[in-house]
Amino acid sequence: MGTGWLVAAPPTNAADGIGGAVDIEEALIQHRLAMVTVPPNLRSFEVRGHALVLWDGSREAGHALAAAVPLLRVASRVTLLEIDDGTLATLGCQALDLLAARGIAATLSYVKSDGRGAARIALDEIAARSPDYAVMGAFDPPSWMARLSGEVTGELIRHSPVPLFLKH
């Protein structure tokens, strides 16, 4: 099965059912789509603006980075934010090399978690850096519902003020 793209707005409440958890899970996991979630109050999505890549060194982050290459090629600025909680499998400098090999210049920023949650760090960095969108890997299938209900991916889907490019 190939990879496609889907743009979805998260529901404003659980009752509306549009873009809800089951649809997002199905799109990301079963259909292997890359997805851009758009905050309900967003008026435009500037793909040629500043892209913030949220990097935790995971396999999912690598898939998201690779799938986002077409967007990152047209971004005016790409920042790779390495969030280190002590479990980095692939370092941010390796991700920079991957981007450079594809003609994408990026800068690397590093944040040590120091016990703070990755979602809080990501949301704080999005607020401080004001990117036009963020790129991130999306969760493992077995823990989908747990993560959606309160961990990193779900927190960012619910609270990010900018569009999120997600790929499992």
**Which percent range fits the helix content?**
25-40%
Shape: globular
| Quaternary class | single chain
Structural class by helix and strand composition? alpha/beta
- Radius of gyration over C-alpha positions, nearest whole angstrom: 15 Å
Strand content: 15-25%
Taken in chain order, the helices and strands follow as EHEEHHEHEHEHHE
Poorly predicted spans:
1-6, 11-22, 141-150
Distance between the termini: 14 Å
Biggest sheet record: 7 strands, mixed
Mean pLDDT level:
79
Number of strands: 7
Helix run count = 7
Strand order of the largest sheet: 1-2-7-6-3-4-5
Structure in words:
Helix content is 36%, strand content 22%. It has 168 residues and is of the alpha/beta class. A 7-stranded mixed β-sheet has the order 1-2-7-6-3-4-5, sandwiched between helices. Strand 4, helix 4 and strand 5 form a beta-alpha-beta unit. Helix 5 packs parallel to helix 7. The longest helix is centred in the C-terminal third of the chain and has 12 residues. The radius of gyration is 15 Å and the shape is globular. The N terminus is likely disordered.
